Structures are given as structure tokens and as C-alpha cells.
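Anyone up for a design puzzle?
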């Protein structure tokens, strides 16, 4: 959000305004903002309650834990967040990760939220948000697309009313197909009907023409009714399904599988448990951490990645700025305090954030209304949740995650850069086996491709009386042997050795000590064969390093003209970039080494 412009006064503690962003916008809060924030908060609340119940099922936890995870993040983000549109809470992606690392045990899930929050908070304090930049877009797309399929298929059993289906994806597919004859007709009919209604309402909202202020009152009211129905479609569908289930219950027959009893009341505010009672004894904290393993890295990183990506997207769309490190702090505090009320790890929700933005929210205060609505549901409405059919919640989940599958990314990468299909496909395929293996493998493959490009930069070689060598990027220690081999293979193996070698350094903006040593050895090796190596077009930081190293036989010139006058090279100014234009005529035959 933009900074409030206040000429007449300044905050006595400017550091507090940096760490607590609510102080930036609260002094100029207005009644008009309050009205819009209340409407947006209520709209998001009607979306989050049914989604929270459904996502708890994805996480493998009792459904009340979805509600426990849906209010603290709203309150914390109001004070510490920097994006007016973002809403925190349970999401499909995070619920899938929790199901992998919490082993369907609430104690593990709550402790995972606490530890993830501590890691996120530490990253924010140390300004380590840049680590998220090492998770490439193909890895993210591969993970979200695979998650869309696995989460959707995980809900097919609830649509069909099947029990005892394993959670491992391949076993799940096998068992579902094997037992499809056991489908409960009531669950299937209701689930498919809910899916059709949700799809229709989504399409209606996407194609709904916006009402203008000059339209008749009846047209504006109609628009508001249709828009509200389409935006709150999850709540409407769950309410409709619940009424159907209650009607069957009153008539004495129940063909639907219901959610069942949910404990009423607010969760106790207490520290998360650092040990767990088990049939064969107590599982200590150390063993619980070892059981979570790589999840302690995957969960906080993916949570941060999802939140910051959403915040940046809506900040760009709505013309305000966010502070990524402050977002890390907000996420950390939200998960830590959330664990005190039995929340599992939360993150930013793209779907609910979109609803928040479309509802006209003005500040993060809309989250206070959403959180309050969740608390009211926990306090007074849990007895009504008994009648919600599982097939309806499954339809809500499938409707939410299907748009996450991006089929076009495969075609796009094939057209733009096919090599990026490797980390995409590795992540996509391995996520069907285990989520953590897919993400880690995708990051490793992306890292290997990155390191290979650093170790093998493009080098353009122009052969003739003078050997011109032009690296296409900066030189780092993995690349020095590649450069030495390239120079020596052309200079020493040629039938007619060149008079001298010129290293054009215009694209080299930085070098390290290993590169300096490699260049010293290259100078010495060429000198043994009666050849000289001359540097030209050195950038100031690189020249400073080379002069400080005091290399024996080091000589450099600022341009080709100077090199030509002193060494007899054919003139070609440093202003002409051989990597930028290959159509330019050259006096020397060239070869690009990659």
C-alpha cells in the first residue's frame, strides 16, 4: 500500500511504522473504507468457511482444524501485512503438504505450523527472502499442476461415497477404479450436481457485464444479486447440500455421507505440544522433528512463495507496493500465533484474495471481519455443519483446484525454451510419488542447469592473424577452465599460430580469485609458446581486481583502436557488440563456443 502523505506531523517512532504497517494507513482510515472493508470481509468469510472444512479433509485432519486455521492469519495480517488484498488461511497446496508431513496427526500439524512460523520469522529478520528466487517458475508450475490432479482425484472417493481408499496417489487410482462398482448413488448425484452448479456460477461471474452508475436501479440490483451469488457460490452450494441432507434426515433415510459431529466452541489458546502420546509410549520433540524431515524446509518456503507471489500479483494489478521481507515477518507471526489456537500451516490464498480484491477491499482491515465471521461459526454454527455432505465439500475442493492446472505451460515452454521442460516434467511426475521428492528434484535440476550455464558461458572466437576471444557473460570460478581450454585449443593447435591473443572483456562485469589465478596460468602458458595475451574493454571493477593481483605480463587497452596501434590488431571498436549483431561483417572467421 502507498505511504500516507502527512505534512504536518511525523511519527515519533518511525521504526515502529516500518515494522507495524497498520500505523501507515490507520491515521487516514475513513467511513467509506470501513463500508467497503466490511462488505469484502463478509464476502471472503462466506468463502473461507466451506473451504476451510474442505481443506482440512485434504490435510487429513478433523474438519474443525480447517476453521481453527482460518482466523488468526486474518487478524495478524491486518497489523503486519503490506498488501491490502491478501487473505491468509488454509489452502489446497498447503493442505496437501501438511497431509504429507503431519501424518494425519493434529499434534504434528500444529507443531509444523509453529516451527514453520519460526523459520519464516527468522528469514524475515535476516532478509533471506531472496532464497525464494531459486525456485524457478517451471518448478512451481510443475508442482501446482501435479497438486491440482492429486487433490482433485483425492476427492473422487468422496464424490462416489467410497470408504477406505489409500492416500498414496497410484494406490488411490487403482483402488478407486477397482471399487467403482461400490459407488453410492446419492453421493455421486449430489457431488456431480454441486460440481455443475459451481462451474456454472464461475462461468456466470467471469462473463457478467459490470453495471454502470447510470443503469436503472433494477439493473444494478440484479447485478448485485448475481454477483453476490456467483462470488459466494461455495457457501450457497454447501448450504443447499446441507438442506438436502437435513431433509433426508427428517424423512428417516440418509443416502448421503455426512461430515458428522464437530466440536463446538473456540480452540484453547495454548502452546503447541512438543511431544505426542503414542500407544507404545511418548514421541519426543526430537523424534517429531526427525519425522517431519525435509518438510521443515518445504512447508515454510512454499508458504512464503505462494503468499509473496500472490501479494506481488495483486499489488501490481492495483498499483501499490509491498515489502517482501515484511511479508515474511507477517507470515511468521501468523503461523506462530496460529499454532497457539491449533492451526496448521497457512499461507496466502489466491482464490480468496481475488474475491477480496473484486469486492473492493481498501485495507487489510477486511481480514478482521473475515476472522470474526469464522469465530462466530466456531462458536454457534458447528452443530449445523453436521449435515454438510462430504460430496459437497469435495465438489468445492475440485472446483477450487482444477484452475490451478496449467496445460498451456507445456506448450509455452516447448516454444520458448525447451530445456526448461526438464525441471517442469521432473517436478510434475515425481510429485505424484511424493510431493517433497518432486519439489526437491525440480529445484536440483534447475540448479544444475543454472550452474552449467555459469560453468559453460558462450565464448565467441574470431580466428586469423590475431585470435579474438569474446566471453558472452561474467567469469566465475567454474568457467575458468572452459575459457583456458578454448583459448589454448585455438591458439596452440592452429596450423598457423596467431601473432597474439586478445581477450575482449566487455561482457565481463565481475571475476573472482580463482579466475584471477586461472588467467595468470593462462598468461604463463601462452608466454612459453611465444604468444601474448592482451585484455581490452575491461570494466572498472574487473580492471581493479586484475591490477590488484599484479599479474606478470598483464597488459590492457581501453579499446580496439588502442590495441591496434600498440599490437597491430585489426581495428574494431568496443562500441560494436559481436554478441548483439552477428550480421555485421567481420574481417575474421568466427566460431561461437557454447
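Challenge accepted. My sequence:
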Amino acid at each position: 500500500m502507498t505511504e500516507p502523505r502527512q505534512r504536518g506531523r511525523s511519527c515519533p517512532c518511525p521504526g515502529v511504522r516500518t515494522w507495524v504497517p497498520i500505523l501507515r494507513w490507520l491515521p487516514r482510515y475513513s467511513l467509506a473504507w470501513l463500508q467497503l472493508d466490511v462488505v469484502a470481509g463478509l464476502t471472503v468469510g462466506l468463502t473461507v468457511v466451506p473451504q476451510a472444512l474442505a481443506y482440512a479433509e485434504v490435510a487429513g485432519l478433523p474438519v474443525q482444524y480447517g476453521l481453527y486455521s482460518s482466523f488468526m492469519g486474518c487478524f495478524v495480517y491486518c497489523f503486519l501485512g503490506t498488501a491490502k488484498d491478501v487473505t491468509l488461511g488454509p489452502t489446497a497446496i498447503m493442505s496437501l503438504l501438511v497431509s504429507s508431513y503431519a501424518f494425519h496427526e493434529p499434534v504434528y500439524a500444529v507443531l509444523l505450523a509453529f516451527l514453520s512460523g519460526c523459520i519464516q520469522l527468522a528469514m524475515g529478520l535476516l532478509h533471506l527472502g531472496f532464497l525464494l528466487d531459486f525456485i524457478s517458475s517451471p518448478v512451481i508450475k510443475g508442482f501446482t499442476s501435479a497438486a491440482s490432479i492429486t487433490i482433485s482425484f483425492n476427492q473422487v472417493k468422496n464424490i462416489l461415497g467410497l470408504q477406505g481408499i489409500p492416500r498414496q496417489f497410484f494406490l488411490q487410482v487403482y483402488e478407486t477404479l477397482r471399487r467403482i462398482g461400490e459407488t453410492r448413488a446419492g453421493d455421486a448425484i449430489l457431488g456431480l450436481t454441486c460440481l455443475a452448479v459451481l462451474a456454472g456460477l464461475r462461468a456466470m461471474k467471469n462473463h457478467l457485464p459490470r453495471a454502470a452508475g447510470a443503469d436503472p436501479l433494477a439493473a444494478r440490483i440484479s447485478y448485485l444479486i448475481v454477483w453476490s451469488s456467483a462470488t459466494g457460490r461455495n457457501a450457497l452450494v454447501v448450504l443447499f447440500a446441507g438442506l438436502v441432507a437435513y431433509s433426508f434426515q427428517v424423512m428417516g433415510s440418509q443416502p448421503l455421507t455426512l461430515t458428522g459431529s464437530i466440536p463446538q466452541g473456540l480452540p484453547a489458546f495454548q502452546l503447541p505440544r512438543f511431544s505426542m502420546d503414542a500407544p507404545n509410549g511418548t514421541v519426543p520433540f526430537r523424534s517429531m522433528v526427525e519425522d517431519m524431515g525435509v518438510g521443515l524446509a518445504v512447508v515454510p518456503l512454499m508458504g512464503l512463495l505462494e503468499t509473496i507471489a500472490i501479494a506481488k500479483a495483486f499489488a501490481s494489478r492495483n498499483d501499490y507496493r509491498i515489502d517482501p521481507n515484511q511479508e515474511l515477518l507477517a507470515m511468521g507471526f501468523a503461523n506462530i500465533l496460529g499454532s497457539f489456537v491449533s492451526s496448521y500451516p497457512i499461507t496466502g490464498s489466491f482464490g480468496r484474495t481475488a474475491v477480496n480484491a473484486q469486492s473492493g477491499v481498501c485495507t487489510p482491515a477486511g481480514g478482521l471481519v473475515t476472522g470474526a465471521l469464522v469465530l462466530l461459526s466456531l462458536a454457534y454454527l458447528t452443530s449445523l455443519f453436521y449435515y454438510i455432505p462430504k460430496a459437497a465439500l469435495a465438489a468445492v475442493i475440485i472446483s477450487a483446484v482444477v484452475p490451478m492446472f496449467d496445460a498451456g505451460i507445456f506448450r509455452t515452454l516447448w516454444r520458448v525454451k525447451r530445456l526448461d521442460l526438464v525441471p517442469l516434467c521432473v517436478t510434475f511426475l515425481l510429485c505424484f510419488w511424493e510431493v517433497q521428492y518432486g519439489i526437491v528434484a525440480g529445484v536440483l535440476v534447475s540448479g544444475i542447469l543454472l550452474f552449467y550455464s555459469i560453468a559453460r558461458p558462450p565464448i565467441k572466437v574470431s580466428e586469423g592473424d590475431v585470435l579474438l576471444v569474446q566471453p558472452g557473460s561474467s567469469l566465475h570460478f567454474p568457467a575458468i577452465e572452459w575459457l583456458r581450454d578454448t583459448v589454448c585449443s585455438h591458439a596452440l593447435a592452429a596450423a598457423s599460430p596467431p601473432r597474439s591473443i586478445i581477450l575482449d572483456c566487455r561482457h565481463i562485469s565481475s571475476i573472482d580469485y580463482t579466475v584471477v589465478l586461472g588467467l595468470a596460468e593462462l598468461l604463463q602458458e601462452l608466454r612459453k609458446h611465444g604468444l601474448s595475451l592482451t585484455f581490452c574493454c575491461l570494466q572498472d571493477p574487473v580492471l581493479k581486481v586484475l591490477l590488484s593481483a599484479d599479474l606478470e605480463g598483464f597488459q590492457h587497452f581501453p579499446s580496439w583502436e588502442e590495441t591496434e596501434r600498440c599490437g597491430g590488431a585489426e581495428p574494431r571498436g568496443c562500441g560494436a557488440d559481436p554478441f548483439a549483431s552477428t550480421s555485421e561483417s567481420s574481417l575474421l572467421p568466427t566460431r561461437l563456443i557454447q
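A detail worth pointing out: The longest helix spans residues 31-59.
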